[in-house]
Design goal:
alpha+beta; Thiol Ester Dehydrase, Chain A; 2 domains; 22% helix
């Protein structure tokens, strides 16, 4: 039987901005939760990769904050409750992490994961695959869902219809280094979300501190973040980030949209949407 995994983390200053828990903090803890859940209920992650020749890639991230936002002085500990469901075919997994500070809900993260088969143990090159039957068997009926449910969640769409742009599209180029990557020299989904939040805050420099949208970009907390990973990028790839923003139809939120692509490519590798409160 697969159950939930619960663990705690003592809070420290670098987990927080002046406004809230940082998105990368929550995603780091989500990966920690994934590894703990697998070790407790399936198999440790190194065994998953090197013994079962199986791994997962993140297709979609959904991060939702619960207001009011938690600040550093509010609680000494975070508690994470981790659960996982699988598709009946074993091709998809969904990890849900609920974050609490005492009895207070803080946030929820959902990761939609595509199972892959490792075809080269040295480079960890992989192709679409499915869970080995011995691991899939550990998910009881109430922990399985139809594959089409995962497909719908994996195909993230813009959270609101796009309205008029609030400023001209901003462009920035970065060379991915191993700081941005994981063990296979492929981008880390956590670091790419961090690049999106940096692109938003960079507007303070590119648009100027007197711009009304900049006040929004650096002065409002994130309410929701969605990231849709289309095609991976690798170490030393040149990455172009395109950032734009628009209001939600009810004018209660501002959506900052970040598109990541190569300098010569016309197809996006990653979309990130940050939904912030209007201020």
């Amino acid at each position: 039987m697969t159950n939930s995994t619960v663990f705690q983390e003592a809070v420290y200053t670098t987990q927080f901005s002046a406004l809230q828990l940082r998105p990368r903090t929550l995603l780091d803890l989500a990966v920690n939760g994934l590894a703990r859940y697998m070790a407790e209920h399936l198999t440790p992650f190194p065994s998953f990769v090197h013994h079962h020749n199986t791994s997962v890639v993140v297709r979609t991230v959904y991060l939702d904050y619960t207001p009011p936002d938690l600040h550093f002085a509010d609680a000494p500990w975070l508690e994470m409750h981790v659960g996982m469901v699988a598709s009946g075919t074993g091709e998809w997994l969904s990890l849900t992490v609920d974050y609490q500070a005492g009895d207070r809900p803080v946030a929820r993260v959902r990761l939609i994961l595509r199972v892959v088969t490792v075809v080269d143990p040295s480079s960890l090159a992989a192709q679409p695959g499915r869970l080995p039957e011995s691991l899939l068997a550990r998910f009881p009926a109430d922990r399985r869902q139809p594959a089409k449910a995962f497909l719908g969640q994996a195909r993230a769409a813009p959270p609101f219809p796009a309205g008029p742009q609030l400023f001209a599209t901003q462009r920035h180029e970065t060379t991915l280094t191993r700081t941005h990557c994981e063990v296979a020299d492929q981008w880390s989904f956590v670091e790419m979300v961090e690049m999106a939040t940096v692109a938003r805050e960079r507007l303070f420099e590119t648009l100027g501190p007197s711009n009304d949208v900049v006040h929004q970009a650096i002065g409002a907390p994130v309410r929701r973040l969605i990231a849709s990973y289309r095609r991976p990028m690798f170490v030393f790839d040149r990455c172009h980030t395109l950032t734009q923003a628009h209001r939600s139809p009810d004018a209660k939120h501002t959506v900052f949209e970040h598109t990541f692509q190569t300098p010569v490519g016309d197809k996006p590798h990653l979309h990130v949407w940050e939904i912030l409160d209007a201020v």
